[in-house]
Amino acid sequence: MNLILYAIPFFFLLILVELAWGFTQHRNTYRINDTINSLSMGSLSRLQSLVILGVSSSIYELIADHYQLRQLPGDRLWVWIVCFVLYDLAYYWKHRLGHEMAIFWGSHVAHHQSEDFNLGTALRQTSIDFYSFLFYVPFFALGFPAEVLFTTVSLNLIYQFWVHTEHVPKLGTLEWIFVTPSNHRVHHARNKIYVDRNYGGVFIIWDRLFRSFQEELSKEPVVFGLRNPLNSWNPVWANVHVYWRLIKDFIKAPGLMNKLAICFKPPGWQPEDMVSSCKHRGNLVDLTSRFDPVIPTFSKYYVLSQFVISVLLSLYLLQYSSSLGYEKTVIAVLFMTYSFYIHGSWLEDRPRALGLEILRMVSLIVLIQFASVHILLKSLIDLYAALSLLALLAHKYGKFMADTRNIHNKTQSEVKLRTTT
Fold first, then answer.
1. How far apart are CA 250 and CA 257, in angstroms?
2. pTM for this entry
3. DSSP summary character for residue 321
4. How buried is 153 (Cβ within 10 angstroms: 0-12 exposed, 13-18 middle, 19+ buried)?
5. DSSP symbols for 56-119
6. CA–CA separation, 80 and 324 (whole Å)
7. Confidence at 294, pLDDT banded by 50, 70, 90
């Protein structure tokens, strides 16, 4: 049973609670741009599951039919406890390999790009998790029922949500057994001493056992993010940028063994005398700055309002996709991907953002006519798109008039200057 969908409303509620707490303590850990980007990636990671058919389910059926030792009873407490503990051990190694092999890092990197650390960061997930099923196979073979395993996977992920916060200090003896906000802050740090440490999902004992544990040090304040920052609010690029450079290096590398090594050795490895396609290679690690481009006030509040609507549409799609049919669901997911991409363009103040947003709203008006949704919802979406277009056109006209006045004033000043001369 996948509990994530049912947990999403509580995730958002707790994000609002943390935001309010931060303001009351004069220690706000949220930025609009970073939070929108994190939640956009979280939404995309859920939406892609509607398009990609269940590989894990197919593998489970194959193993259960031909290779399973025997089916364990799903109604016994010990089966659930053993599955929970063993899965956390499997998650540790999955997570560790996600840092230590470039081909897996390309998938996991999305979770580490945020330069803030809050409950919103917890929802920043990849849309290209292609290797998790490998760690399910032993459980299938040992006879753990699919419902037990996938419920355990959901519970493991839900537990990890609360540890993404700066507001909870060290928790005494719990730090020795469980993953806590303190030892997970270390995992998200780009300080050299903290990099590639603390991989546990629920239990930190695996890190202590396999010597990958690092305590959070008061003398070394945590700085969050990547050592080579992404510097983009584009959620699509955030998912693929490592693979894009990995493919370029794979093509460039001499010999088959070097090509394979680039994929399966640690991120950044390359043959001697080969120049990497990564432009940031060799740059000094900056622990003082964050990516935070200044954008106009209209853009900030417009994209925030549009993002809220996009999240609501995503939740609706997750809940009712079965009534749309697969083809319409694919189109809807592609539209939502385009929407989150445009939100990122607004946050970066891209010149093309306005034109692309107008195209998005016109496309929404057209596409919703073919959707099998209630007439009231269809009318509300039409109204929302029409009002958005009016706001965009008013903004464009106002910007045009402001530019015209500036040109006129500049011309008048030049004429007066020539006359005086």
1. 10
2. 0.90
3. G
4. buried
5. HHHHHHHHHHHT-S-PPPTT-HHHHHHHHHHHHHHHHHHHHHHHHSHHHHHHHGGGG--SS-SH
6. 35
7. very high
